[in-house]
Amino acid sequence: MSKDKIITWLGERFDLGKIQELIGKQVNKPLPKNIGWLHTLGSMSLFLFVSQVITGILLLIYYRATVNEAFESIKFIMTKPYLGWLYRQVHAWGANLMIMVVFLHMLRTFFMGSFKKPRELTWVLGVFLFIFTLIFGFTGYLLPWNQLAYWATTVGTEIAGAVPIIGEWIKVFLRGGTSVGGETLSRFFVVHVIILPWLVFFMIGVHLLLVRMQGISTMERVDEEKKLQMGEGTPFFPHHILKEGIVFYLLIGILITLSILMPFELGEKADPLQTPHAIKPEWYFLPMYQVLKYLPKLLGILILGIAPLLLIVWPFLDKTKARHPGKRPVSVGIGITMVILIIIFGLLGYWAESKRIIFGKEYEFDVYGKPHRIFHETKK
Ligand code: HEM
Q: Residue 188 Cα, ligand 1 centroid: separation in angstroms?
């Protein structure tokens, strides 16, 4: 059948003109002149989400969420099915990259003041998307049912137990019992493969709808921002789409290269009777985990509980009109301080409870990340 015949056939059934007009309007939508590479971080987050869904579906074909089969099923995926090793690695690396990219996208919109009027709700939805991306990581980490995952989940859920009054209830609810076991695995599995994907899917949909309706923010003051008319600014197609195509291409390359050169090891199967030496969460939880070590339990939980709330209400606290980072010294200062603190606590958490050789000298880092020099006795 020729192309014209298909178009005529469809045209007799649907108003193709209207659909064409709608697509044309979206494709030619003008973007502000200041739009650059940093504005591809949002679409990179979307790309990684889609990649996670595709590789996740492939993993689901052979994955089994039971204590007896989970570890073996991942081992099977890594060795037997065609390209099984690749889609498992791309999923694991994709999760890490997605957390990093969503975080960078959040920083971009924070420092460029994009969260200000009228985009407060886009930001609020974004904060929830960030939190859900972290929960994606937390729940997915347990699924291979290996030692690292088992003990990281035990410690992670233990922290919830420190919340006053309802803490014990939350802990038992998360674990599905008093300790991490088969019940925890099924719960995390359901959250990871059903609840979160659909929730995040719809939330991204609304997030993007808002972005499309309000347009990408300019660097002008809130009270001076004008809506761009057709023909002004830079058209979405082909200018910005080309940039997005390039970053998607690079992302595919990065995912495959990392999967081949630095594959995630499966390690040993979970053993509830054997506690490993140093239990640590994934890198993206390390800063929070480390902060908790220096503070009294209740204060730590309080601070970590307030942080996401503060992020959510930030557009309603910072009502200044300027968007340009150079004209917002206070909020930019707060943002930079937070980023530096996150990096410092993350590094301390990474070093904690490990031995390292620095400039030829051996050090042992204690739980707080403080180095202690190791001197070896020499035999006489
Ligand atoms: C899965 C997670 C997310 C996806 C897929 C996503 C996607 C996008 C896309 C494609 C854009 C338009 C292009 C751009 O500005 O980069 C955008 C804009 C925006 N996003 Fe996100 N986003 C996510 C998470 C977040 C987070 C965590 C925040 C902040 C807490 C956030 C806040 C915003 C804001 C305020 C805008 C408007 C930017 C402007 O008008 O300049 N988003 N998002």
A: 27
Ligand 1 center to 14 CA (angstroms)? 33
Closest C-alpha among 45, 99, 92 to residue 244? 45
Cβ–Cβ under 8 Å, residues 114 and 289: no
> Which residue CA neighbors atom 13 of ligand 1 most closely?
42
- pLDDT of residue 167 exceeding 80: yes
114 lines ligand 1 (CB under 6 A): yes
Report the C-alpha gap between 355 and 371 in whole angstroms. 9
> In order of start, what are the domains of the chain with their CATH numbers?
1-30 (no CATH), 32-328 (1.20.810.10)
| pLDDT given for residue 33 in this prediction | 87
Pairing of strands 30-31, 354-358: unpaired
Model confidence pLDDT, tens digit, residues 51-91: 999 999 999 999 999 999 999 999 999 999 999 999 999 99
CB-ligand 1 contact for 51 (6 Å cutoff) = no
- CA 362 – ligand 1 centroid, Å: 44
Q: How many CB atoms lie within 10 A of CB 85?
A: 16
Residues forming a β-bridge with 354: 365
Query: Which residues, 6+ apart, have CB-to-CB distance to 35 below 8 Å?
Result: 216, 233, 234, 240
| 99 CB within 6 A, ligand 1 | no
Contacts of 180 (CB under 8 A, 6+ apart): 142, 150, 153, 154, 157, 272
List Cβ neighbours of 25 (8 Å cut-off, separation of 6 or more): none
Tell me the pLDDT tens digit for each residue of 344-366.
999 999 999 999 999 999 999 99
The pLDDT of residue 380? 56
CA pair distance 36, 189, nearest whole angstrom: 38
